[in-house]
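## retry 2 of 3
previous attempt timed out at serialization; input unchanged, resubmitting
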Amino acid sequence: MKKIKMHWQIAIGIILGVLFGVLLIQFNWGNQFILDWIKPFGTIFINLLKLIAIPLIIVSLIKGVTDLKDINKLSKMGIKTIGIYLLTTVLAITIGLILVNTIKPGRFISAQTRTEMLSTFGQNTNEKIEQASSAKTHGPLQVLVDIVPENLMYSASYNGNMLQIIFFTLLFGISMVLLPEVKTVHLKKMFEGANDVIMKIVDIIMLFAPYGVFALMASLIAESPSADIFKALATYGFTVILGLVLLVYLIYPFLLKFWGGANPILFYKNLAPAQLVAFTTSSSAATLPITMECVEEKIGVHKEVSSFVLPIGATINMDGTSLYQGVAAVFIAQVLGYDLSLMQQLSILMTATLASIGTAAVPGAGILMLVIVLESININPAGIALIIAVDRPLDMFRTVTNVSGDAMVAVVINKISGNSLTPKTSE
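## retry succeeded, writing output
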């Protein structure tokens, strides 16, 4: 497969994984065979990507900050980055709310189907509610408290603490910039060398990507719920995916063209490997190494921009997750018979925006934040049982959106910073 371009290798892996899964589940022993002998290779692939995520953030962010050599330039880039991330998040939620109120997917689910789903997935819902309970009891400034780590080693042991790693890394990099260059020149060279090593590790991991995504897709087919429930949730899923498609292929291209000075077609062609990995892993954090490689090497964003913008984006920029939370909250309300007021929907907009900042960049984290969004409009979080059956497939699509949004903002910030796109390689 060496002669086939990487994004095509990954695409072939996805298709073959689906076909293999569909074929084997026709046999009584098929599901268990996939879970015992195929799924572990998918888990290994995700673990490899997560393994490299935090080291990559540390070395690339420090290198990016120290390359700027100007604190004022760094602060301006930070403000612009966070501002654009918040703007796209609000746009995403707004699109979701408009679509869910127009299509009204909740009216397509019968009372019998509702009862069946609440019964089938009630236990999983209770687990999610318990996981989110601690977040509900915290004060409004808890997000700021959580950013500052009390133990760096503990923070580095869990990818969900990525904001804490970013905080320390920025502090470290800024301190290097403030010191005389003669005192940090050797340290900077060390991080530059470490960055090259980490990126080579990413290249090695990507050799395993087609086989990893094959295993992930086959196991997804084996673990999928019954087709009857998928049919009942088809309209809801369609609403979410339609919103994500509009965001990725209408809003983002507009911003890329007029704010980023980039060709949207070439942008998506070169980002394809990262999008495919995002689709199969459902994790922005796990996809980050591939995203950085695509954005820097193929799209041509300057490293000082990508190494700053992308790690932050993988943590706080969750456009796909935010859109999904808006659609899901209103959908659950529709099914349960609630007529949400304008103020309640504005509350969804604000709460989902804030919740997206604290959402861990790992599979399924968005549904935990949905508990907070539902409680902000006085809807019983038990209603999550209505959507949990299709959460994983939709998580795959919204992760693609999250990663695409991160890359798009990197291109825009690159343009605003006065840089032109200079790709090193292109597929």
